[in-house]
Amino acid sequence: MLITGSSLKLIQDTKEALQQAFKMKDLGELKYFLRMEFTRSNVGILMHQRKYALELIFEVGMTAAKPVGTPIDINVKLTSKVYDEHVKKEQVGEDDPLVDQTMCQRLIGKLLYIKRQSGQGLLLSSSSDGLVTTFCDADWASCVLTRKSVTGYMVKVGQSLVSWKTKKQTIVSKSSAEAEYRSLASTVLELVWLLGLLKEVGAEVQLPVHVYSDSKSTIQIAANPVYHE
């Protein structure tokens, strides 16, 4: 459990109340949480996943002794561990060799990238101007199996990236404008929640918040929703 707030006394009172009701241990300052590692310095907090990335690479057999030269071993392990989880959810025949090969190639590419960049992370700066900036986009009909679009957004407070997401939309969008509009709606929904959270912890935020979208049709719909079906 991660406990945070604007009052140290309130945090301590919360810990004591929880310890009276449950058997628990106070681990002190945040260092490792939900596969995320946190390293502190005067500049800010570096958030990374090096430990989890190395565990993932080791699990699929991509050790230093078998880097890139043994794609067959990697294919076998990926097919058995990951293929069922990703492909069967899309209700695709598990005996489809084309889908099998494509999925494995994509996953191998991602794992090779993780292997090379395991030490990369995000810096949460200790200084901020309180300006919230948001970028959102949609990849129309990008899923080759379902033709569903993908929503993507990122939210920055000052120069620090605090929220990001890439997720397949729940329904098939008939146009790129519809896909972009759904992406924009999801982004604003996240912003409403995030601004409430920042207010609770006492963070100063400049209003209004700037949301950037690259779809002209979506901007027109958002500006005048009355004359659009």
UniProtKB/TrEMBL annotation:
<dbReference type="InterPro" id="IPR043502">
    <property type="entry name" value="DNA/RNA_pol_sf"/>
</dbReference>
<feature type="domain" description="Reverse transcriptase Ty1/copia-type">
    <location>
        <begin position="1"/>
        <end position="72"/>
    </location>
</feature>
<dbReference type="Pfam" id="PF07727">
    <property type="entry name" value="RVT_2"/>
</dbReference>
<dbReference type="InterPro" id="IPR013103">
    <property type="entry name" value="RVT_2"/>
</dbReference>
<protein>
    <submittedName>
        <fullName>Uncharacterized protein LOC107016888</fullName>
    </submittedName>
</protein>
